[in-house]
Amino acid sequence: MRIRYFGHSAFLVEVGGKKILFDPFLSGNPQSPVKPDEVEADAILLTHGHADHFGDTIEIAQRTGAMVVANHEIATYCQSRGVANAHGMNHGGGYKFDFGYVKMTPAWHTSSIETPDGMLYGGHPGGFILRADGVTLYNAGDTGLFRDMELIGEQHPIDVALLPIGDNYTMGPVDAAYAVKLLKPRFVIPMHYNTFPVIQQDPEVFARLAAKEGASCKVLAPGEEWTLETA
Ligand code: NI
Ligand code: MN
């Protein structure tokens, strides 16, 4: 599994010959090294509707034909915006796609879709378990700390967890390290920090806290990629 970071919460995961894009906030993302027309995707997985996650989903899905996987409300909204292939899910539900198994997990956050006509209801925010090619990835989405993360890790032994550390809108470094303790991933990659002044964090501080909880932290600079060898 190859994981490329575009800054904020945007990642491109390549596994089993498929490209899976998480939360493609690219054109408005000061950290992104790529433009929306420079990425390819077979699937786009959206954790929630906020603009710093929904990002360039419509444009990328229309150009590439990627399937959008999101909660029911956001999947339906994408269809209304001309996305041909949208798959709605909800918390606790799993589905076997051609690119891997996906389960939608809860997240403590909010979700709305910002449009020129105002805010639309965006369903509940979530995270994802993605299992493909013998590797399990957990993307927590935007969330505060919650103890049921322990259950997620118990049910799906996690190879790599993507956790927000920016604080203010999500967990900060201390709570994210506690999440590591509950989830027990082998590796952890921090996200959702340093994009805006209000979420400035030193990822190395988090890396040290995560190491104390037994996970190896991979801090990726925007544009950087890391490969997790298949077991
Ligand atoms: Ni959000
Ligand atoms: Mn966010």
CATH class: Alpha Beta
Question: How large is the count of helical segments?
Answer: 6
Q: Strand order across the biggest sheet?
A: 6-5-4-3-2-1-16
Summing up helix and strand content along with how strands pair, one would put the structural category as alpha/beta
CATH-assigned homologous superfamily:
Ribonuclease Z/Hydroxyacylglutathione hydrolase-like
The average pLDDT value, as a whole number, equals 97
Question: What fold name stands as the CATH topology?
Answer: Metallo-beta-lactamase, Chain A
Helix content range: 10-25%
Strand share of the residues?
25-35%
Secondary-structure element string: EEEEHHEHEEEEEEEHEHEHEE
Number of domains: 1
The whole-angstrom Rg is 16 Å
In this structure, how is the largest beta sheet organized? 7 strands, mixed
Total DSSP E strands? 16
Question: Would you summarize the structure shown here?
Answer:
It is built from six helices and 16 strands. With 231 residues, it is α/β, with parallel strands linked by helices. The chain is globular and about 45 Å long.
Explain how this protein is built.
By secondary structure, this protein is α/β, with parallel strands linked by helices. The protein has one domain (2-219): Ribonuclease Z/Hydroxyacylglutathione hydrolase-like (Metallo-beta-lactamase, Chain A). The protein is 21% helix and 31% strand. The protein has six helices and 16 strands. The chain has helices at 51-54, 57-64, 72-80, 149-155, 173-183, 203-212; strands at residues 2-5, 11-15, 18-22, 43-45, 67-71, 86-89, 94-97, 100-106, 112-115, 118-121, 126-132, 135-139, 160-164, 187-191, 216-217, 225-227. A seven-stranded mixed sheet has the order 6-5-4-3-2-1-16, with helices on one face. It has a seven-stranded mixed sheet with strand order 7-8-11-12-13-14-15, with helices on one face. Strand 9 and strand 10 (118-121) form a beta hairpin. Helix 5 (173-183) packs parallel to helix 6 (203-212). The longest helix has 11 residues, at 173-183. It is globular and about 45 Å long. The model has no long low-confidence stretch (mean pLDDT 97). Manganese (II) ion is lined by residues 50, 52-53, 142, 169, 192.
